[in-house]
Amino acid sequence: MAARVKKVMRPPPRIADWHSAVALLMGFWVTFRHLMVNLFGFSRGRQDFTVYYPEQRFLHAPALRGMPVLVQMEDGRERCVACGLCEWACPTSCITIFPAETDDQVERYPRVFDIDVSRCMFCGLCEEACPEEAIVMSRQVEIAAYSRAGTLWHKDDLLVPVAKLKTRIDYLRANYGR
Amino acid sequence: MGEDVRIIVDGRAIAAPQGATLLQAMLDAGLDIPHYCYHPKLSIDGSCRLCSVKIEGMPKLQIACNTTVRAGMVVHTDDPDVAQTRRGVLELLLLNHPLDCPICDKAGECWLQNYSMRFGSRVARTVEPRRKHGKRLDIGERMLLDQERCILCRRCVRFCREVSASGELVIYNRGDRSVLDIADRRLDNAYSMCTADICPVGALETKDFHHRLRVWFFTQTASVCPTCANGCNIAIDESHNRIWRLTPRRNDAVNDTWMCDAGRLNYRFVASPARLRQPLALRDAALVPTSWTEAIECAAAHLLRVRDAYGGGTLGALVSPHLTVEENFRFGELLRVLGTKQIAMAVARGPSDNFLIKPEKAANARGVRELGLVSGADDGLGSLIDAVKAGRVKALYVCGDDIVRVLEAPRLAALLEALELLIVQTLEQVPAFARAAVTFPTTTFAEKSGVFVNFAGRAQRIMAAIVPPPGWLNDGEIFTALLNAVSSRQERFNPEAVWAHIVDSTAQFSRLTLERLGTQGAPLSPAGAPAAGQAPAT
Prior knowledge:
The complex is a heterodimer. Chain A is α+β, with helices and mostly antiparallel strands. Chain A is built from five helices and six strands; from the N terminus they run αβαββαββαβα. The model of chain A has no long low-confidence stretch (mean pLDDT 89). Chain B has three domains: 4-78, Roll (Ubiquitin-like (UB roll)), CATH 3.10.20; 96-217, Alpha-Beta Plaits (2-Layer Sandwich), CATH 3.30.70.20; 280-523, Rossmann fold (3-Layer(aba) Sandwich), CATH 3.40.50.740. Classes of the chains: A alpha+beta, B alpha+beta. The interface between A and B is medium-sized, with 16 and 13 residues.
């Protein structure tokens, strides 16, 4: 069956359109403004124009979605009950959980909780799916490793004390209607 | 039953057999009517009220499970009253239901979850605290009870009264104080784990599947239980290339919707670390791992050596009742090419009851007999033993290790001692077979496809659920490789093609194509019956 081709009439390209010229000039203006700020900004009292990473770290906003990590409660246990919703929600299937039983009230904990960092795309769906506020997107963005095995983070690598995650948890409660 | 009656449901005409319940008629017609307490294989209880429908001419809504169909009945299930009733029933059920879903093993296949999402209201109006009851109660060898999750549908109570006839579970108290518990003895009957299947919520859970894995990660494969000759239909729940549980699959001709606990728990051997993962060859009185190619060459050379030295009649074989009909058929071809006359089968026996558990602890003993490989009351075993003792059989090809359970250790040792050559195909390394020239690993029911014939002569398909390691040869492939090595054939083992050949060539299996077997199986034709022009068996 021959493909049917329909020719669509398009207006010829006109470089001299006034709105494209304006957009071009606006782009030039942004570049020029940065040039001027970097050349003469010191006169207004600005000291550094660069964060000297890794000696200095930029404190990311709480809205930043870095590595998903597990919330560790004050008693050292994870808050996760291994319900598997993040594993199900994950679009890249980078989470692997095997649950096991505990003797306490919670009944259940993740025996294995692995996140393949090299597959994670920081979408934050795991955090949204979590009914226990147990997995949150941290400010951790340094995930490079020397081997593929190093990109597989186990439960011990993922546990972060709840005190360190307070800003993100507060942000979640304020913005996700929890 | 008499003629079908015609009823009208939501403007659609439905035919149902006389005397059927309205709910079953609607379910059979493919309508999705929510229900909890109704179970097709249990008596009617009418306790959940969820299947209420509007029937023209009746003043109030009627529960469909306890209403018999009547000709000309006009039923509405899309009525606002029906929707409101469902919403109300679900709201009342959720009054005291703990929101345990994140840690409940039923989550994902829970009827309360599903119906609440589809028919319930999303808002909870209660302010009272939820009632507190026992959680994780150890009520039996294999069962746990969570009284808070129970919605009092009494399916399990009826199961224990009517199916297992043991009556362990009862409901104490009345009204909103009702609570499910065990009576005077623990829930230890041979079918106790079926209560977890029929429980619509996570109140009854098996210890075996407690906090193991989420059900939505499973791939289900329709198969047949390998534990005894009954051939209960099962679904294999696979994830991460492992079996996590076996659940019964409905087949009214075999197991209704039940299966025994022993069969349900008999899956761990598939992933057992003790399993042989490589062929073994005997070198300097020790069994050493070897490659598949070498093992096949070695076994073929041994078989040919014995045949050429003493004749094909000195080769004996023990066929396995655990292998599929196709594999045994191919084994039969191999034995015919080698000239073997002494073929026997050892079937381990064990306890049985008059419900599902059968004494023969193998799935396909009947299939081997129907193929005509073995005959006699003891499946030729006595004759084979005599022949080995008399020195008429010098080499033995043993499939499976049932012989270890059938013969006492000294008799077996004496039997094997008299042999010049032993080739074995087993699941695990067995000390009794330490002198085997070649030991092949055998393949379990979950790793291959084929057909089993149960004790009553019903052919049923099994399907591969998990993938064996790369390079693995299953039993049929081993037989085929040996067949190619001892003859000039160049064949491959394709179970479908072998089955098609069996259907064409064997009277009992005539016309039982794989399509016809489907997922429910079909009975064999009577032996010797003509292959064509015969009314199809049901």
